[in-house]
Amino acid sequence: MKHTLILTTILTGSFFIAAAQQSAKPEDTEIYEPVPKIVTPGKMPGAAPSDAIILFGGDNLDHWVSNKDTTAAAGWIVADHIITVNKAAGDIQTRRRFMDFQLHAEYRIPTNITGSGQARGNSGIFLAALPWGAGGYELQVLDNFNNKTYVNGQVGSIYKQSVPLANAALPPGDWQTYDVVWTAPRFNDDGTVKSPARVTVFHNGVLVQNNFELRGDTPYIGQPAYRKHGPSPIKLQAHGDKSEPISYRNIWVREL
Closest by alpha carbon to 249, among 65, 48, 87, 111? Predict the structure, then answer.
């Protein structure tokens, strides 16, 4: 009797579902507003779409300032449509501050690079630069083409937090790309974390971070932690190692 009742219930439910589907119309599940804005893609791979903010297009560093003194100009070298790191000048950061964004950046490890481990083409893209501790949330830039180091500090890592899903490094001398989707953390009024930061990263077209949830900032020593902050600049690191400085080009961002 129990089995008969269950079967009857299932058949009755199936009948009403089928009847509802037969009476439904296609327009019941069609949405017409809000209409997505029109964005014209770049014509070449890596080219900025129509709504992008060009942070470096090859001519100047007008969108950047010194990280040491934000009233001072960025002191890196611009020539032949590329930026070369000036380690003596220190890190540089954007004048503008951001929350969520899509970022494209290209970098090149010099062909004559020397050193090993972390002292080989070391730089970093801080997706949100902060004025305390290690300075923010770092996506590592490093030469890891036949160069070993700790895996949570190699290229493609969220420094000291997340090992990349693959090593997609190209040889020194080749231009390499990062494409990033960054979701900034949100905080409650009392400073507690409302929602943590998340990041997806493609390195040279290969997925290396898949919607990773950060546990806080990315210090060289110690554990990650969150401190309340709002919109933040993007920072490029002038690492203090003695290897030859790397270069950047074609940097753009889309606010989300």
Answer: 48
Hunting for tokens 């979701």 — which residue is that? 183
Which CATH architecture group holds 53-255? Sandwich (2.60)
SS3 152: helix
Half-sphere exposure of 30 toward its Cβ, with a 13 Å CA cutoff?
A: 5
Length of the chain: 256
Q: What is the tens place of the pLDDT at every residue in 29-88?
A: 889 999 899 999 998 889 999 999 999 999 999 999 999 999 999 999 999 999 999 999
Give 87-98 as a DSSP string: TTT--EEESS-B
Helix (H, G, I), strand (E, B) or coil at 162: strand
Model-level pTM? 0.90
Neighbour count for residue 61 (Cβ, 10 Å): 17
